[in-house]
Amino acid sequence: MTSSPKAAHVWERDPNDWYIEPERATVQLLRRETFTGWTHDSCCGQGNIVRTLIAAGVTATGSDLVQRVDAPWHMGTADFLDGPMGCFGADNCVMNPPFYRAIGAERAIRRALECVPGKVAVFVDARFLQGTARARGLWNDYPPSRIWTILPRLSCPPGTYLQAGGKAANGSSDWVWLVWDRARPVAGHAPAFGWIVA
Description:
By secondary structure, the chain is an alpha/beta fold. The protein has one domain (about 25-195): Vaccinia Virus protein VP39 (Rossmann fold), CATH 3.40.50.150. It has helices at about 25-30, 50-55, 105-115, 130-135, 140, 160-165; strands at about 40, 60-65, 75, 90-95, 120-125, 145-150, 175-180, 190-195. An 8-stranded mixed beta sheet has the order 3-2-1-4-5-7-6-8, with helices on both faces. Helix 1 (about 25-30) packs across helix 2. The longest helix is centred in the middle third of the chain and has 13 residues, at about 105-115.
């Protein structure tokens, strides 16, 4: 039996943990989830999530700690975690938050759940699902409604690497969308689980 070579890269860590998910990730999410009302990406980076939502007919906007895009839907710079605006009053939040060794992702999830009455969808490394601290903390406090595993694997390089002309190759990490749905909260601690295959 032979195995296919992987085009994995080791990049210098971005100081703001700005790693870019391909638009395919959001396209796949939209095969399973709908977003009613205004949807905001509070960590929008260059805007892949927002542009994909808008192309699908969703009313969507974005903001970020750093201005990386000039577009009519961009609401400017804002500190989502420590600033007063949160999701600007949006109904839903869809984001790829800075991971910061899982601490940043958890803070972003908790903040989004404080801010929006509808759905929160968060793109994270699948390893985020593991860990005793989250099992006793975040998953106990706020179990997600649904977990969608994305296939095939995605490559999510740093934004600076792509800006310098680099290309995303085959992914070597597993990624998931975690969805909290206020209209259909999870029963107990048993979120629905499924795959989204491109």
